[in-house]
Structure prediction request, 380 residues.
Amino acid sequence: MQNLIIKILLLMAIFFMSNAYALEIYKDDQNSVALRGFFSGLYINSDTSDEISDAGSRWGIDYTRAIENDWTVGLTLEWGLNFENNKNFTLNGSNQAPQGSSDDVMFARLGYISFSHDDYGTIGIGKQWAAYFDATAGTDVFNYWVNLGSGAFNLNSDGGISGTGRAEQSIVWRKTYGNLKLAAQVQAKDEPVVLELDPNSPGFGLLNGETIATVGNGYGFSAMYAWQNFTLGFGHNNNEIELAPIVGGGSEDDVISAVSLTYGTFGTVGFYASAMAAQSENHEIDNTGRYFDALGSEFVLRYQFDSGFAPYVGFNRVEEDDSSYLGEYEFHVNIIGADYLLQNLHAKLFAEVAIHDTTYSLGNEFDETEFVIGATFFLF
Prediction:
């Protein structure tokens, strides 16, 4: 009990020290500069271990400049901050680092230039949110855990190589036509997939650190249609992959499609609900590093009161859908949580419980309950 009290006091210290950070914004008739991001700390407890950790802290800069003929050029840079290299817990995909950067104190989350015009839309070049992610973002709202059912953050990474999360080496065009929002994306790349498994999962060490595939060029697109308080989305992404001999070799297509339905606006008073389902081929890997075809789903239901308090529930699920797959793989987690927005402090307190019911490919089961309590200070 004494250790628990000390950890909670340390967490509170992290939170209140965060308020020393200041936001500076510059703006004139032609230029604007803004600081973005948040700092977060939390305490995590499970059936087998506990620790104090960061929670996907990040900071970045947005710069825009009005140029000729009603065009605007922009630059977005964002870095993730990793204050601990030896975590016993795995961050959710939205907070994950790119492949090969999991031990870096600071890593690139976003980095792209953009050109925007009211008539022609926006074109971004660099590492940016994927077109596919537009259709699945509605369920990516939990404070700490999961967001794995959508397939956006596959390969135990930020989905950069696959182009479904924060897409690397990409060109993305976005344009809104009334209630319809469209996005299209191409990626030009030839990147190795180095297996980085959760060290706590069964099967860790069999292929960990090995190159299991090379991902080639890809494309993706999405369409979002808003009607009253509802938004219907569809996303698709396709990549060429060359499997390494160590996992059987051969050429395959990494394909994923998703549909989503969202009600309400996240972060506003009232109900918010979002659900999505995805089907993929050669997009997910199991706990031993094998690619497999999968079905994924996510759901969240949330109600925010006038006071800023918001309870929520949801789940994430990924299961193999592959007739050639040997064994069984089924990831499932139920989530119960709540957060409280401290508007005057630009901060948020949150707590989440994750109830796991997962079957790994080697027959091992993971049924732990994990609890997290944390605080986030926003720079904007």
